[in-house]
Amino acid sequence: MPKIVDHPARRREISAIAATLIAEGGMEVATIREIAHRSGYSKGVIEHYFNGKAELISGALDWVNQGYASRAAQATFGLSGLAALRKRIEAILPLNRAVTNEWKVRLVFWSTAAIETELRTQQAERFENAVEFYASDIRVAIEQGDIAAGSAAKPLAHRLFASTIGLSTTALYSPSLSSKLYFRDEIDHLIHRLILGL
């Protein structure tokens, strides 16, 4: 009887290994050969799931983003408005090695997407989806009276999302900008601006 293969699970497994390798040394390290070595699968199996490096890095990005989505869902469970938004922001910041590695994968993908049209289109969709989660929390905060009435949620969400990207990426280069105290103060500042509708 032929062995039943869970293809989505296998793809996730390969994506996780690719993400680890990318975080360790970039795409130069995350070769099909090395992924096959780490996974125990043949190169042919890897190439069955990923047609080239662009698909492989996209799979790695999806894997780290799923990790963030799960973490954010758990952190915001039972919360709404600004309380949920604060936890959502905290969940994306590189406060530990695992999340720092997620950001390394994002930066590698973004640099590739900047010059490859198909990946750029995919990333634009990912950005919009992420912004919508922020906007949803902001809309609730406006309804609850915690953010100035008449504020436009989507532009505020775009601004906030761009700020969290900036906080996260600069922290990768400067240890002084990656402490929990620094991040807490920056989140307080961002939330305060939101309350004012800025």
What features would you describe in this structure?
The structure is a single chain. The protein is mainly α and 198 residues long. The protein has a single domain (7-195), classed as Orthogonal Bundle (Tetracycline Repressor, domain 2). The longest helix has 27 residues, at 117-143. It is elongated. The N and C termini lie far apart (63 Å). The model has no long low-confidence stretch (mean pLDDT 90). It has helices at 7-25, 32-39, 43-49, 53-76, 81-92, 97-113, 117-143, 153-173, 180-195. Helix 1 crosses helix 4, helix 4 (53-76) crosses helix 6 and helix 7 (117-143) packs across helix 8 (153-173). The protein has nine helices and no strands.
Summed up:
This protein is mainly α. It contains 9 helices and no strands.
CATH homologous superfamily grouping: Tetracycline Repressor, domain 2
Number of contiguous helices = 9
Please summarize the sheet with the most strands: none
CATH architectural group: Orthogonal Bundle
CATH topology call: Tetracycline Repressor, domain 2
C-alpha-based Rg, rounded: 19 Å
Write the layout of secondary structure elements.
Layout: H1 7-25, H2 32-39, H3 43-49, H4 53-76, H5 81-92, H6 97-113, H7 117-143, H8 153-173, H9 180-195
Name the features.
single chain, 198 residues, Tetracycline Repressor, domain 2
